[in-house]
Structures are given as C-alpha cells and as structure tokens.
Write a structure and sequence with these properties.
The chain is α/β, with parallel strands linked by helices. The protein folds into two domains: 4-46 and 57-239, no CATH class; 246-385, Rossmann fold (3-Layer(aba) Sandwich). Helices cover 36% and strands 15% of the residues. It has helices at residues 4-15, 60-64, 84-99, 115-129, 141-147, 163-173, 187-203, 237-242, 267-281, 294-304, 315-321, 335-342, 368-377; strands at 44-46, 52-54, 75-78, 103-106, 132-135, 154-158, 211-216, 230-233, 252-255, 283-287, 307-309, 327-330, 349-353, 383-385. Mean pLDDT is 83; it is low at 21-67.
C-alpha cells in the first residue's frame, strides 16, 4: 500500500472477506511502528494565519475494536512516499490496521539509491510464498515490480480512488496501463520499463487458474467481467461500523483536490472556482487534499476566507467521525462516490461541481475532460452543480 485510502480499502476488504482456504495467514513482517521522523505531516487545522489545531484521536468505538481479531490476519506492507501529509495519514492508518489485528511492515522503498533493491529483496520470499496478494495501485511501478515476483493464484485490487475506473477500463480494452492524467508515452524510462509493466498486466488478467478480484466503490466497466474478473462492491461497512454517526454542523464544507498538483487544472482558475463556491454556498471550511501545497492552501485561505483543515485520516473516516457539514461540496474526485456510502444513514448531502474545459492546462492529457466528466456523471448519489 502506498496511500492512506488504499490502506482504508484493504481494511474494508478484510472486513467482508474470508481467508484463503488452507493458507497460513500468520504475520511474517516487522511489526514495529513506523520510524518516520520527517516533517510534521500530522494533520491539524489552520485558520489561515498559521495557527494549527490538532485533531483528536479516533472514536472510542474504533479503539474498542482493538481486542477483536479479524477472520484472518493480513501482512500489510506500506511503501510510503516522501510527502509528509501522506506519511502522517499512513502512520495513523497503520495504527488502525494493527488495532484490527493485522501485521504492518513499513518499507522505505524511496529512502535512497539502494532502498528499492533492498525492499524488493526483503519482499521476494514472502511474495513467492503467498497464495493471495492484495494491491492498491496497479499503475504504481513499485507494485508492478512486486507483481513480477509473485506467482500468487489470487490477486485482489482494492480501490485507489478514481484511478480504479481507468484501470478496469484499460484492462477490459487490453490497453497499456497508463494514468489518465499522464500526457504522452512517458518518455524513455517508460519504454525501458515496458516489459515489467506488460508482465504485471498479465498477472492482473485471469488466466491459467489465476483469480483476479476488484473490490471497489467506484462504477467500473462491466466488460471486465468477460475477462473473468470478479467485481465486488465496497460499501464502507467497516467505516460505518467503527465510526459515527457524526455530529452535523449545519454548515457547508468544501473538499480540495490535487488537480492543480497533477498539472490538470490551472491554479488561478481553480482558486477562482473555490472562492465562488464558498461565496455562493456559504462554505466555511476547506478540507485539504494531502498533496496540496502549503502555498496554494495559503491562497485558498486568504482568497476564499476559508478555514483550512488538514485531515489526519482519509476523508471518509474524518467525515464519519465528525463533526461535518450538512452539505459537502467537491470537484470531480473519489469522494463524490465514497462519501455518500460512508455517510449512509445521515442527512449529509454531497454535491459535485463540474470542471470547465477552460480550466484545463496545456499539459493536461487529452483524456482529462472526458474522464472528469465521467467521474461526475456516474456519481449518482451526489447532486450535480454547474461548472
């Protein structure tokens, strides 16, 4: 796992699954807590003037589950990226995974020139022995390398947000695995890496007795079933059982995205849209995406007069724990699909604002507008706002 959302969805999958028949699922890995001493990516709140307020820990209901054992134990391997916000959320998700009885191993695969080789070497033996593996991002080069090391007869892909929609579509169409926002072929590195990616794609295709499952809360291409892929719905049952229901503030919250950071949307256009939404809908808080830059968030706080909230957990858990606004506004992103599920049984309304084609940058992939429109159009539980 490389992101907090991936790890959350692994816990959701484990909550609704059973262990492989006859398999020893005991832990093999290092169960130490992550030894991350990087900058404080720990979530807190900023009121736009630099004052930070830490969020409290998770609810008593979640902590009460610490003594409960899962139907089977997972050996979770975390490959953390460099950015401190993601690392902070991963640390907290790792604690929740341990509370659920799973083993967690923190592997610094990006910790220097020799780190990738050391990580691959340390994982080679358990990967060869595993009869089932669960991955979070089939587009990740690290994950694709690890797929080349395993002969597992069962592969499970859990949600990595909207990227899951693109992965399933590409798999069904027999295309090369490429992220939707990436423009062009990826350069010479992608060409050299091509054989690894090709073999990984074969591992993700049911063949020769290999079973492939996609565990997702996103709308996926039905034609993938023709390949023999099993698609199972994620309704966030674990989240709803462990957290909430939340206290509603009665106000409006706005959810940030990383569309600027990925080069899809122009910064100024994005900031103008945020200010307009805040003004028209009376939003008071802005839940920052973990990859949003501090400079951009400072402009959001000053330009839209919004309180910046840096979540210490994926937004599905933060919203379920509360307090949360009666209305949640978002641009096209994963949360317009996941929040209605995580907040089922509450009176929270989720609304999504389309991305105007004029907001896109010259560097945006030609597929960007169609993909973002698809994210919005398939979010049936979310109210659609004009761009």
């Amino acid at each position: 796992m490389e992101s907090p959302v991936q790890l959350l969805n692994v816990l959701e999958w484990a909550h609704t699954s059973t262990g492989p028949a006859g398999q020893d699922t005991g832990p093999y890995g290092d169960t130490r807590r992550p030894g991350d001493t990087g900058p404080a990516g720990d979530a807190g709140r900023s009121d736009g003037a630099g004052r930070q307020r830490r969020r409290t820990g998770w609810s008593g209901k979640a902590r009460a589950s610490a003594g409960a054992r899962p139907a089977f134990e997972l050996d979770v391997v975390i490959l953390p990226p460099h950015d401190p916000m993601t690392r902070g959320q991963l640390r907290r998700m790792a604690e929740l995974a341990r509370d659920e009885g799973h083993s967690v191993r923190w592997a610094e695969a990006r910790g220097g020139a020799s780190a990738p080789l050391k990580t691959l070497s340390s994982l080679a033996r358990p990967l060869r022995r595993a009869s089932r593996i669960v991955i979070g991002d089939p587009f990740s080069r690290y994950v694709q390398l690890l797929l080349n090391l395993t002969a597992a007869r069962e592969v499970v892909v859990v949600d990595d947000g909207t990227a899951t929609m693109e992965f399933v579509g590409q798999l069904a169409r027999g295309e090369r695995l490429t992220r939707w926002h990436r423009k062009g072929a990826g350069g010479p590195v992608a060409v050299l890496y091509g054989p690894v990616s090709h073999r990984a794609r074969r591992r993700l295709t049911p063949t020769g007795g290999r079973r492939v499952e996609v565990f997702s809360s996103m709308p996926v291409d039905d034609t993938v079933a023709e390949l023999g892929v099993t698609v199972r719905a994620n309704d966030f049952a674990w989240t709803r059982a462990r957290f909430g229901p939340p206290r509603l503030t009665g106000g409006t919250d706005l959810v940030g995205t990383s569309l600027v950071e990925t080069g899809v949307v122009d910064t100024d256009r994005y900031l103008e849209a945020v200010a307009r939404l805040a003004r028209e809908h009376g939003a008071t808080r802005y839940f920052a995406h973990r990859r949003e830059s501090a400079q951009k968030l400072h402009r959001v706080a000053n330009g839209a007069q919004l309180e910046i909230v840096r979540p210490d957990l994926p937004l599905e858990l933060v919203a379920r724990r509360g307090p949360i606004g009666h209305t949640i506004l978002s641009f096209p992103s994963t949360v317009v699909h996941t929040l209605p599920l995580a907040l089922a049984g509450t009176d929270v309304k989720v609304a999504v604002c389309d991305v105007d084609p004029a907001w896109l940058t010259e560097q945006a992939s030609p597929r960007a507008q169609g993909f973002l429109s698809g994210v919005t159009g398939t979010a049936r539980a979310a109210h659609r706002l004009p761009s």
